[in-house]
Amino acid sequence: ASDVYKRQDAQIRFSALKKITVAKTNQYYKDIDGVLYTKDGEALIYCPICNTGDEDGEIHIPDGVKYISSKAFAHNTGIKKLYLPDSLKLIFESAFSGMDELQFVDFGKGIRHIGSENSPGVFRFCHKLKEVIIQEQVKSIGPNAFYNCSSLQQVKLPEGLEYISKYAFYGTGIKTIHLPVTLYEIGAVSYTHLRAHETCADL
Question: What is d(CA 48, CA 14) in angstroms, rounded to the nearest whole number?
C-alpha cells in the first residue's frame, strides 16, 4: 500500500474540526460526509475529531473502502457506533484509538485481520466500547487491539479465528471467554489482568 495509508503524525489535527470538504477538481482526494478519502475511494485518510457521523452518532464507512489510515479516527469525540464495510482489507496502527464515545463496532464480512504486528492498538483506550461483532472470516486479532477498553465485558470469538496476539484484550472488563476450536496460538498475556480474573486457565 502507498505511504499515504500509513501516515501518522504527519496528519494535521484540529481539535474543533467537524467536517472536511475537498475541491471537486482535486485529483488526489475527495470527501464523503465530511470525511477525507483518496480520490479512488479505496482509503479512508482522516475523520475529523468532532465529526459525529449521522444524527444517531453512527458512521457507516462506504463499501469500496479497502484501507483505513493510521490514527484516522483517533480521539474522535462524537461517534458512538461504527460499521465497517465488507470491502475492508487492512486497518493501520491506532486507527480508532482513544475514541471518546465509541460503544459498538461491527467489523463486517471483509476484514480478516484486526490489526497486526505492524499495525498494533487499533482500538486501544476506547473506554466506552461495550460490544464488538466479529464475523467468521476474521483470522487474527493483533497486538493491543482492545487494550484498556475497560467497558468491554464480553466478546464472542468466531470459529475460524486462529491467532490472538499479545495484550489484545489487556485491561478489558471481560469476565469469561469461549475459545473457538480453530484457535491455535495466543500471544503472551493476551488476557492478563481481565478485570474479574475469570479467564480460562493459564491465559
Answer: 8
Comparing CA positions, the residue from 94, 98, 95, 114 lying closest to residue 106 is 114
Q: Is pLDDT at 19 greater than 80 in this prediction?
A: yes
For residue 12, give the amino acid letter.
I
Residue closest to 166 by CA, chosen among 129, 94, 126, 115:
115
Predicted confidence (pLDDT) per residue in 82-94, tens digit: 999 999 999 999 9
CB distance 28 to 36 below 8 Å: no
**Confidence category of residue 189, pLDDT binned at 50, 70, 90:** low
Residue 103 grid cell: 460503544
Distance between CA atoms of 2 and 196, rounded to whole angstroms?
43
Of 72, 26, 67, 31, nearest to 49 by C-alpha is 72
State the DSSP string of the chain.
Answer: --GGGT--TTS---TT-------TT-SSEEEETTEEEETTSSEEEE--TT---STTSEEEPPTT--EE-TTSSTT-SS--EEE--TT--EE-TTTTTT-SS--EEE-TTT--EESBTTB--TTTT-TT--EEE--TT--EE-TTTTTT-TT-----PPTT--EE-TTTTTT---------TT--EE-TTSSTT-TT--PSTT-
